[in-house]
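hey team, just a heads up i'm posting the complex here instead of the shared drive bc the drive is being weird again. everything in one block, sequence lines first with there labels, then the predicted structure for the whole assembly after. its two chains so it's a bit long, scroll down
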Amino acid sequence: MRVTADRDRCVGSGQCAMLSPEVFDQDDDGLVLVLREVPAADLAEEVHQAADLCPAQSIRVDD
Amino acid sequence: MTQSADALPEQDAPLPRFPMRRTCPFSEPREYAGMRANEPVSRAALKVNGKPAWLVTRHEDVRQVLGDSRVSSNLKLPGYPHQFHIPEEMLAQVRLMMLNMDPPEHTAQRRMLIPEFTARRVKELRPRIQQIVDEHVDAMLAKGGPVDLVTALALPVPSLVICELLGVPYEDHAQFEEWSAAMMNHDLSPAEYGAAVQALDTYLDKLVTLKENEPGDDLISRFLEKNRTEQVADHVDVVTMARLMLVGGHETTANMIALGVLALLQHPEQMAALRDDPALLPNAIEELLRVFSISDSGTARVAVADIEVGGVTIRAGEGILALNNAANHDESVFPDPGTLDIRRKEARSHLAFGYGIHQCIGANLARVELETVYGTLLRRVPGLRLAAEPEELRFKDDAMVYGVYELPVTW
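-- predicted structure starts here --
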C-alpha cells in the first residue's frame, strides 16, 4: 500500500488527519501532509476511508 | 438514455415544486425515495420563481456534481437555482460570499481560512468549548426545569464559540442572532432579507475597521494581517467573509444541537447506550448529521458546461440542486436509511457538510461542539426529558437550515 496526496487539490477539511492520524497530518497552512507513504497493513481500512471521504479527492492509495 | 431540460417534451403533469417539505422531522421529504428509485436526476420548478432546476438525489451523483469543476456556485450566473427572490438590481450589487465563489477566487480565500479550522486547531479549542458548555449547563441546572434548550444551550454555545473565534463581542449576540435567523427564512420579502444583510454588514463593517486599526488575537485580525501580503480581499470582502463565518458558524450548529437532543430523547435505548459508552459518541454524531441533513439545499449549483449525471445530460446554464438529504438516505449506501442507528458503520459517508471544494470549512469545529454538548448533557443531566408533547414542537420547515424553534426540556 502506497499513499500519495495532491496538495494543490486539498481543501483542508482535515478528515484524513482525524480518521488516520498516524498517516495524515495538516501543515501550518492546513494542507494535507502524508506522514507515512507506506503505512502498516493494519491501517489499510482507515487509510482507504480517509481517501474515500476526502471531499477534494486529493488522496490516492495504491494497493 | 440522455435527455436535457429544454429537450423534454411538454408534460401534462406540472413539474414537482421545490423545496419539498419533510413530513416528519426525522425523515427526508416523502418524494425523495421515489425520485432516487425512478428518476434520480429529475426536473422540478423552484417555488420562489417557477423556474426549472435539476434535482440530484443519489449519493454517487451528488458527490459527482459537487466534485465537478464544470459546475459553478456563482449565484449571479443565469440559471443558478435561487431559493430566495433576489431582484436583478440587488443581485448585481451582491458581493459574493466564499460559498458562492469559484476557483481561483474561492481557492485563494479558502486557503486564508483553512489554518483556523484544522484538526489540531479545533482540538485546542476543546477545553474552552467545554467550559462554555459547563457554564450554560450550570445555569440551566441552577434555574431548574422546564427550560427551552434552544435559548438555554443550543444557540448560546455555538454563538459564543464563533464570537470568540472571530473576535466579535458577544454582548451584541441578540442583534446578530436576529439578523442571521432572518437571513435563513425562505419567506422573507427581498426588502426584509436585504435589510437583515445590510444591518449585519453595517455592524461588521465597523468591527472590521476597528480590527484594521487595532488587531486582536482572532480570526478576522489574522485574516487582515495575512491579507496585507496576499492581497486576496478588499474591505468589503472581509466584511462578507465575517458575515459568512458568523452566520454559518452558529445557526447550523445550534439547530443540530437541539435536533440531536430531541432525536436521542425519542430513542431512549440509544441514548442509554451512549451514556454507558461515550466512545460511541463520534459515530452517533455522524448519524445524527446524516438523519437530519439540515442544510439539504445549501448545495445549489449551475452547470457551466454540458455534464452527464446519472445518465442525464445537464446543459450549460441549467441549475442543479444536489440534495444532500436525499443522498444521505440513499438505500444503496445507508441500508434502512430512515432508521436512526448510532452504531451505523457507514454513517461517516454522509454529505451533510456538503462535498467538494465547498465542503463546510467549520465541520470539525461543529463536530467538537456537538460532542461536547451531547456528552455533557448525557453525563450531567441524566434525567433529561421533553417537557412538551412531541406534536407541539414547531419545526423550521420554511427555513434554509432545518431546525426546531423551541425545545422545552426538564429533568
